[in-house]
Automatic annotation (TrEMBL):
CDD domains: ASRGL1_like (cd04702). Keywords: Autocatalytic cleavage, Hydrolase, Protease. One of its GO terms (cellular component) is cytoplasm. Substrate binds at R199, I200, G201, D202, T222, G223, H224, G225. The lineage of its organism: Eukaryota, Metazoa, Ecdysozoa, Arthropoda, Hexapoda. Has both L-asparaginase and beta-aspartyl peptidase activity. Does not have aspartylglucosaminidase activity and is inactive toward GlcNAc-L-Asn. Likewise, has no activity toward glutamine. Heterodimer of an alpha and beta chain produced by autocleavage. The keyword Mitochondrion does not apply. This is (African queen) hypothetical protein. The active site is at T171 (nucleophile). The record marks G170, T171 as: Cleavage. InterPro entries: ASRGL1_meta, Ntn_hydrolases_N, Peptidase_T2. Pfam families: Asparaginase_2 (PF01112).
């Protein structure tokens, strides 16, 4: 099996000033993940490493740079899934760790549970040796400005259709196929600016933000959480593929179907079990990148594909 990785850096109405930083970040994340795969590493390790790289980057709404809830606090969530055995790990309401995706991965490997939240997730992380960081150290200037703008003009629940909120975008995700034919998916987010304290979105919910099945493929989603979770967007795409659609057609059909039915936007990245790629977004933009046959493909606007040579 030829190993492949695809990553995204969030769907939405991404302002011009954030385009370059996001493209740089998704390209780097794809290279980091692909390096692990090309050395024979697992899809799970590759997607974690790709997401960790974007959690470190203030251009994304995950880890450092996460958007803020209505009280001005970071509350992050993440999930990871192994297509080999359908094992999952997810965390939510994480306030003081830099890498929620790594804690989610530990839940997958070291816990009998699938989703841990809040205080329990913190206890688990501490038990497993993760170190806390001061919550303020996760807050970027951009996230603060986004909350201020939300508090002045925002209406929670509208992304692009009907309302201009440029601040929520930047959830990150990765889907990888390794040389053993295993698929893994990871997704991580700070959620949405101005969300209620304790709000949980689509990202930690398996079938909505993340799904992986070696028999079919893997999907990571981004966009308006309350909409994505009603449609179980990631699993909707998997179902369409199971019923014969290719990765590209299934991704487009489910994202467009969700948008039509629920009048809100999202994006998704997909890999089939054979490594075929699907990318679709009903939002204005979605930053994405993938690597195939030593070529790095990437883009952010509709109908746009750039290509670079890549040396790993
Ligand atoms: N930008 C995003 O993708 C936000 C995320 N899906 C959420 O609603 O929590």
């Amino acid at each position: 099996m030829v190993p492949t990785i695809i990553v995204h850096g969030g769907a939405g109405d991404i302002p011009e000033s954030r385009v370059e930083g996001k493209l740089k970040g998704v390209k780097l994340a794809a290279v980091i993940g692909q390096r692990i795969l090309s050395e024979g590493g697992s899809a799970l390790d590759a997607v974690e490493a790709a997401v960790v790289s974007m959690e470190n980057d203030e251009y994304f709404n995950a880890g450092y740079g996460s958007v803020l809830n209505v009280n001005g606090e970071v509350e992050m969530e993440a999930s990871i899934m192994s297509g080999k055995d359908l094992n999952v790990g997810a965390v939510t309401l994480i306030k003081d760790f830099l890498h929620p995706i790594s804690i989610a991965h530990k839940v997958l490997t070291d816990s009998p549970h699938s989703l841990l939240g809040g205080e329990g997730a913190k206890l688990f992380a501490l038990e497993k040796g993760f170190t806390t960081v001061p919550p303020e150290s996760l807050i970027s200037q951009h996230a603060r400005a986004a909350l201020n703008s939300f508090l002045q003009h925002g209406e929670f629940g509208r992304t692009e259709i009907g309302m201009d909120t440029k601040s929520d975008v930047g959830t990150v995700g990765a889907v990888a196929l390794d040389s053993n034919g295993h698929i893994a998916v990871a997704t991580s987010t700070g959620g949405m600016s101005g969300k209620a304290v304790g709000r949980i979105g689509d990202t930690p919910q398996i079938g909505s933000g993340t799904y992986a099945d070696d028999y079919v493929g893997g999907v990571s989603t981004t966009g308006h959480g309350e909409t994505i979770l009603k449609y179980c967007l990631a699993h909707s795409i998997i179902k369409l593929m199971e019923n014969g659609k290719d990765a590209s057609a299934a991704t487009k059909m489910a994202v467009e179907g969700m948008t039509k039915r629920l009048n809100n936007t999202a994006g998704a990245i997909t890999l089939s079990k054979n490594g075929d790629v699907g990318i679709h977004f009903s939002s204005q933009r979605l930053a994405w990148a993938y690597i195939k046959s030593n070529k790095l493909f990437y883009g952010i606007n509709h109908d746009e594909v750039f290509e670079d040579d890549v040396s790993l």
